[in-house]
UniProtKB/TrEMBL annotation:
A divalent metal cation binds at H40, H124, H128. The keyword Metal-binding applies. InterPro entries: DinB, DinB/YfiT-like. Keywords: Metal-binding. PANTHER family: PROTEIN DINB, SLR1116 PROTEIN. SUPFAM superfamilies: DinB/YfiT-like putative metalloenzymes (SSF109854). It comes from Pigmentiphaga kullae. GO terms for molecular function: metal ion binding. Pfam families: DinB. This is Putative damage-inducible protein DinB. Belongs to the DinB family.
Length: 162
């Protein structure tokens, strides 16, 4: 299920990025909000990847004072989606249930299993794509539905025949 969840996340992230790309300069506030949400999303993904790898935290907080360009975020998200997809594909028992202890960016201690961390990344992305979707609605920019059910039926159209 985690492997498919990361396929879904990559699909939904791409659809969201395509919709954001339709924002014009007249909607600068909406573009800034969407960019900030993506920036936060990828920083959190970087932080959890470092925890899964046992590496030092690559960021001191979950946001940055300067927002990267949308093209940079698009590349970083694609690389992150590829990494998480590959990681989820090779993770299995008993490693998926291994607890990893770490320190959150706010200094609080935490402990989660590897599969809980992966679930968090999928869920976290869904939350922020929803906020971006609302901003796109307010800006009058249509965006595609990116729910799991839409993904399943888009990638496996034969399910519509069942």
């Amino acid at each position: 299920m985690l492997r498919q969840a990361f396929q879904y996340k990559a699909w939904a992230d791409l659809r969201t990025l395509e919709a954001i790309g339709r924002l014009d300069t007249a909607r600068a506030e909406s573009l800034r909000f969407a960019t900030q949400q993506l920036n936060h999303m990828i920083i959190v993904e970087d932080l959890f990847r470092s925890r899964l790898e046992g590496a030092p935290a690559p960021h001191a907080s979950t946001n940055t004072p300067r927002l990267p360009a949308l093209d940079e975020l698009r590349e970083r998200i694609a690389r992150s989606d590829a990494w998480y997809g590959a990681y989820a594909a090779r993770l299995g028992p008993p490693e998926e249930d291994e607890t990893v202890s770490f320190v959150f960016a706010d200094g609080q201690r935490g402990a989660m299993s590897r599969k809980e961390m992966l679930f968090h990344i999928v869920n976290h992305g869904t939350y922020h794509r929803g906020a971006i979707g609302h901003a796109l609605d307010l800006a009058g920019v249509p965006h595609p539905a990116d729910t799991y059910t839409v993904f399943i039926h888009a990638t496996e159209p034969q399910r519509r025949q069942a």
